[in-house]
Batch of 2 targets.
Target 1
Amino acid sequence: MRHQAILLIGPTGSGKSPLGRWLETHGLWGRRCHHFDFGMNLRAASGLTPEETRFLQDVLKRGALLENDTFHIALKILNAFLAGHHVQPIDLLVMNGLPRHVGQAESLSGRLEFIAVVHLVCDAMTAWERLRKNTGGDRAAREDDTRELVEKKLRIFNERTAPLLAHYRACGAPVMEVEVGAETQPAEMAKSLFIVAT
């Protein structure tokens, strides 16, 4: 069964996780939402082999992406989430951090139907300001917010993740652009989504 989903895309610090949590609490377009925060699920992953666990720890430390040959680990984590949250066919998945590149998107195409992409438009300076202020309230105790790793993640976003916008447009999924400022809160971001839906 393919679950319907929306994808949150934006650079690190743009507010994907706070928006995902808001949608999980309030729903979207009259549907119950389940927020799948891949980074959070990656850090808390269980049921993996010792080799997979060591590999993921290295991925997190380096700020790297899962490529096609290791993507089965991501699918294992996603399947555990779907089962653990009792996601129903009428529910909507809010995908945050997965897929991160076109190869991952192609691997997910048989599992998820993306009905929309939400692009949180946020330049690097604004992302840095949001991270510094912890605007979304989700950066406490994050060990991957060092300047070196953030700069690497911003480069990866521009080179590997941003092309997903063209990919999903070509697949027929609408892309909704939401401007994000240094102080923008998730409720403000969500307003744009409801306006687009009507």
Target 2
Amino acid sequence: MNNAPRWVSSDEVFALVSMEVAIRAVRHDLLAGLDPARDLARSIIDLDTGQLLYMPSRFGDFVGAKLSTVAPGNPAIGRERIQGIYVLMDAATLGPILLVDGRALTALRTPAVSAAIADDLAPERIDHLVVFGSGTQAAGHVEAMRAIRPIGHVGVVARDPSRASSLVNRLVASGVRADVVGADAVRDAQLIVCATTARTPLFDGALVPDDALVVAVGSHEPDVRELDTELVARSQLVVEDPMVALREAGDLLIPIGEGRVAGDTLISMRDVMTGAAAVDRRRPRVFKSSGMPWEDLVVAAEIYRARS
């Protein structure tokens, strides 16, 4: 009998599991007992041309691991910046049962995680969503946020005018009111998404309204950030896991190092979802994602169920 694991291509990933299903899977598993604080540690290895990431996890009936690379120079030569492969295994036998395109899995699970917690943190009415970035994660986050809230208008902020216009055109074609805007558009946004490779703050945090949610997913390095100290210092701070954020999240570590934020004020997304921590709507909420192995496992397991 052939026990070789089945391969799931990039196109199949999105055909098998919609954004809505991925969001529900994240919420379901967190409420069913998955605790990000108990996730297996990931390894990040610096290489001459980028980074190698090994991300193992286990929960319920499954064990899995993603081997992923981040190569900043790749787009200049027509290659993907993020590449990888995911191996899903049966927890009882530890036998591989599925191989998944790692880039597609990342493209799906990251915005699904953001939207899963944004459903608790975002205002009920989103007249204006501002997204910083024009790549896969920027587009994916707009799709994910539309899955949890009606969105009146999307403003796109990006360094490359042609890429910004391309994303706007795709959004308009999908039925979204969208255009290219400047960074100061955050002053009237209810939802702000930062999905860039920036190493310094993208906008003036003092402009962000008190009832806005800011989602930052672009970095996982302690000396890199998309958000300024002003915004972080005045916001309620939600993360996947406080210990991971205190190792990797420059958006938070830099303000902590400046003495403007206390590390023990970080709240886990699981505590928000379960009601163990209350949402403070008198000030901005910031969800800072570092990207954790459990997120890949949850969505890979959903892909396996959809294909079985």
